[in-house]
Structures
1.
Amino acid sequence: MPDANPQNKSTEKEWSPEPATLAPINSWPPRPLKLFKWLFGFPGFLWPENILLLGITLITWIFLTPDLNTMSTFEVWWIALLLARNIALILILYGGAHLYFYVYKLQSNSFKFTKQPLATDSSRFLFKSQVLDNMFHTLVIGVPVFTGYEAITYWGFANGYLGFIDLGTNPVVFWCWFSLLLLVAPMIHSIVFYFVHRLLHTRSLYKSVHSLHHRNVVVGPWSVLDMHLVEHVLYFSTVVVQWLLALHPVNALFQIHIAAIYPLTGHLGYEKLTIGDKEKYDVGGYFHYLHHKFFECNYGTGVVGLDKLFGTFHDGSKASQATLRDQIRAKRKATA
Ligand SMILES: [Zn+2]
Ligand SMILES: [Zn+2]
């Protein structure tokens, strides 16, 4: 596995947040009150992140997607339309976050994990610029890949190749299944991401594919989809779960949007978003930031605690760091 990037050896002062935690659904024995607060509180599981994401999905489906029947054969016009609106979506969200934090610096360095800037004049990145390189891999490779998955989804549903589970004709059962799949979509993302990500950290795939994403030790909003083509194809394959389970294309679209938008918080480079002088909103990005910093930990997300289960959880504390170091040493000894 790779050695820590030289950027990590910096002695620059870093912002150290409270230790990263897992969602209360991972607690055993269960803690009902905490679970309730996490589900319905602010910020919590539903609000604002997943409700906003669902809002984006519904607006996209209702106003910005051609009628399903017109997508039963692959045609350039509707695929180009999907591509254009997906590029616009990413430009607005990633570009907006980049402008807010890194161009206009509206939050300065408050709650910024590291004071190190995004790389400029670095031969590790295309055009010698981390931001331009990240934008290139996002807009030229990432967005077309997830647009491809989206196009296959509509084509499959329009032709009856997908949505084939027979739950009878009862609309109550249909909408209950629809809602349940919306509710568990972030968990599906978390589980698929964990295993795909661990696969990407095997020696050969890391070297040839995933190392591209890890050039971003200091992360910014455009780093989310700074990935190799193979990683994009594997990463967005999470929608296949919805191809197998969903009865409505919106479930699949929501799963794609989770993969495209949800990790934005993990790549902002900031722990909290401040609004005015007092309001501070924890964006929950510390978990994945630690992965970029220490590589061999936190492969999943804080929603489903597979990292805890498989001993790869790092909460940012010195104790976690010592455990990780011991694990790496033991692994190196075993493979020596
Ligand atoms: Zn990342
Ligand atoms: Zn990784």
2.
Amino acid sequence: MSDKKPMHPDTKLVLGGRRKEWLRGMVNVPVSRTSTILFDSVEEIHAAYPPEDGRLSYGRNGTWTQWSLAEALTDLEPGAAGTRLFPSGSAAVSIALTSVLGPGDELLMVDSAYGPTRHFCDRELKRLGIATRYYDPVATPEELEAMISDKTRAIFMESPGSLTFEVQDVPAICAMAKKRGLTTLLDNTWATSFFFPAIAKGVDLAIVACTKYISGHSDLMMGAVTAAPSHWERLSRTGRSFGQYVSPDDAYLAARGLRTLGVRLRQHELGAVKVAHWLKDQPQVERIIHPAFADCPGHEFWRRDFLGSSGLFGFALKGAETQRATGWSRAWSYSALATAGADSKASPSRQSPIPSAPHPNVITAVRWCAFTSVSRIPTTSSRIWPRPLPFIQQAEASIRKKAAQKGRLKRVDGKPP
Ligand SMILES: Cc1ncc(COP(=O)(O)O)c(C=O)c1O
């Protein structure tokens, strides 16, 4: 047994994918653009195939710029075999699904899935002869098991769900699926592997839209799928067969974003919780839908399994206020397409995406945002947090100390700090 101390996730973020042979003397793995690779002999060409990360063969198979990012993402998922990159989060979802499903198969898809994921199932999978059955995001593993037929091949989870934020019991669903020989896929975009290492929880294919928190600066599109050893070969083969590729420039930017994922996510978390608490007290607001709030469906699974919450949550307006949602959205919006950068956005949801959901007036607030200004801070963690997170408390203490030193601290309740 190795007596090496496991690396802290923050350290992994900084060191991941920085192999000496890829750095070649530089601090960051450089952008290497190419389509064609030059070889010195026919033997070398033969040795370069089949394509493999870490071995130059042809531009589409990547260079160290893409391999390094993929390796850094894999490092965040204990137990994973590897990561493949895709030109968008949606491409990552659709290729991951295609890698495990074939004609005649059936997929169990969570009813709170991201809209385009749903469209892919209802249009493309259907066209390929693959049936999708939607399940309630709060379904227990037993209820899900009762839905399994002899055609069911896979269960897709998104936790928390898009817009309605139900948190699923991912480990229990995975354990049940494994027993029944089914593949599990998880859209882990909200938490990322940093707040929810999915492979260690039993997920076979963990998907992240790197467009959001991984990149973190609203300037690129990318997706990633990290696979358990049992699913790596198939995922890799399918990705290559569909010619999936990301540019080295985007891979470089995403890797640069990844290095600061920890500090950004914690700031997202603080900002979102502050805004959610402010919204909770507004007369127009019916309820907050945030996994860290005790009344969020599946909050107990968030408490048990997640290492933090991110910047995206929802709120439901009281009926009459729904008409003003667009105005609210504009008032909140600093950028029309804010995506996990240092800006905020609220976007109205026309209808709840879940026909059976009890909150039709859902607004997705603070979409992938970070609040960088800390002129007003929450009074105490225990007031805003259902559970005290040590790093939130530390962050608050340090913010309070610095602000007090500079004499610019204002408490929300107006009392001196
Ligand atoms: C949960 C979730 N999954 C997947 C995606 C798709 O990512 P992309 O926009 O990179 O295709 C998004 C985009 O908002 C998302 O919110």
